[in-house]
């Protein structure tokens, strides 16, 4: 009886008591996991009596309330009908009320519910029915930090981004450029390598600033410019640092920080000061709080949980007093965000000016580091003692714990999703699109109790309709495209909901198989999607062909079954794809010839296979086709090996070719890119703006 009541309470909170794993098997969740997750959600599960009392409170809450904390509806869909059938009316911005099924403009309003003498009012969003689908296009997918030019300071920066976008649009006809998250990192070295475990998703990393593009740098006397140039010289690919060493973010940021501090101290003219003040006013309290965290982190470290107790509460008097004492540093970090805002705008402008119909597509990580800025700024909106991750699946058979705190579903809803909406608005401000890493974040997340294994978690639900409505509204306002990474263990209804809102899915070639496990023919792929061969969590095509991922996982002890089984399955899967490519006329040599060469360690046919795979993608009806720049230049090394931290140089691999020699941005225009040329629209489709030169 106790376990039944615990399970009933879990369902009330949206906590899964059972789930279907990646092999299609029903798996139960342990009472210990349920208890830990419910406690993190604020439920008292300390005893059977406490569980029963919580259940009764939940039932009473449902009996007495007229409306949830926030209501989101889609244009053209049935209006909300809460239990009890109260009278509903929408209050517009000018104070007038209209029927909920009347002509309600898109955007935020208030919804009033009246039932007898009872009256409730909550925020109400009228979201678009669906986002418009983009014209068919192709574009590069890149890890920006790895794509360095001879002028960058050890990491690819926003000037490099603008140049890469301009070149790929003008010379190759690319319609977009999808990049890794540019979210904020630590304020002082050491800087964590993963762009998917940031300090804040709301603000960007000054690491990506190009020092020489700042107005302050241009105004310096020649001698002062030379002094700043000397800071970056050892980091440039033609400087003292070897260009094939792992990316060193800490060294790059240490040098840039010195240069930026020098530039910040220069006097600003009246116009510049006014523009800075307007930026701070526009960004409001969130910018002030982030800049305060940044200043405090310089003194006490980036993990606020280790700060003096009186500084852990962002709204405390102690924090206000310390912020006043550190006012100059707080302003400095606000200034960095202002300058980032300008260079991000310039990159998107360069992309659009070069002819990209979409431009830069930013990436939104699924979460933030436990001790980072967002965790401090929005402390009460995160569930304590929990981390986000993923259950075991085909490529990560031990599951994943990403070490990131999840949003508390109810508390986030009580804010009308304000932090989530602000984060989206910031991401859309200087881009033509947004990729949602782990798109299931709008529906459910895998919560892992701290101290447990990733396999010992469970799913916790979020209000999918509300989050998707917020996403669609912010994208509509920006005229932007949204792509959801819906890979791994995904509920079918999630993909349906994404598509219904106009959010494109992700079709990954290696995962596109029919019910019998065979490669899915191009004509049967999804049309509303971004089609790619691989992902940053897998080796590039050349590495995959040679089984580098199996060798790496074996060396790191990450295989959950014998290596021979992994290799046999890999060869069988590869043989199926090679046979299809050959049958489609995309690959000249027979599959057995290619497989024999691979078995001998030869790369004689690597470029042909890479080109054939991308030619196959172009035959799918997918709206967007993504070509990894790593694939285009023949790179073999993966950027990230899930399940590792320091065992592999995750997120620190500079772009290189098949020969292992570094490839610089400056050299791309003169470098043959055989995997790009075959990108064409499917037969019978009208040509799109993303067709490469020379394509019919």
What does this structure look like?
This protein is of the alpha/beta class and 696 residues long. The protein contains 21 helices and 21 strands. A hairpin with a 5-residue loop joins strand 1 and strand 2 (26-28). Helix 8 crosses helix 10 and helix 18 runs antiparallel to helix 19 (591-599). Residues 675-696 have low confidence and may be disordered.
Tell me briefly what this model is.
48% of the residues are buried. The chain has 696 residues and is of the alpha/beta class.
Helix-and-strand structural type: alpha/beta
Q: Roughly how much helix do the residues carry, as a percent range?
A: 25-40%
Shape: globular
Number of helices: 21
Number of strands: 21
Please tell me the overall pLDDT: 92
Largest sheet: 8 strands, parallel
Task: Indicate the radius of gyration in whole angstroms.
Answer: 26 Å
Strand order of the largest sheet: 18-15-12-9-8-21-20-19
| Intertermini distance | 69 Å
Low-confidence stretches: 675-696
**Strand proportion:** 5-15%
Task: Lay out the secondary structure.
Elements: H1 2-12, E1 18-20, E2 26-28, H2 31-40, H3 48-64, E3 71-74, E4 87-91, E5 97-99, E6 107-115, E7 118-127, E8 137-142, H4 158-172, E9 176-179, E10 183-184, E11 200-204, H5 215-218, H6 222-232, H7 249-264, H8 270-300, H9 317-325, H10 327-353, E12 359-364, H11 373-377, E13 386-390, E14 400-404, H12 409-414, H13 418-429, E15 433-436, E16 444-449, E17 458-461, H14 464-478, E18 481-484, H15 492-500, E19 505-508, E20 529-532, H16 541-545, H17 548-555, H18 563-583, H19 591-599, H20 606-619, E21 624-628, H21 629-633
Parallel strand pairs: 3-7, 8-9, 8-21, 9-12, 12-15, 15-18, 19-20, 20-21
Antiparallel strand pairs: 1-2, 4-5, 4-6, 6-7, 10-11, 13-14, 13-16, 16-17
Helix pairs in contact: 1-2, 1-3, 4-10, 8-10, 13-14, 18-19
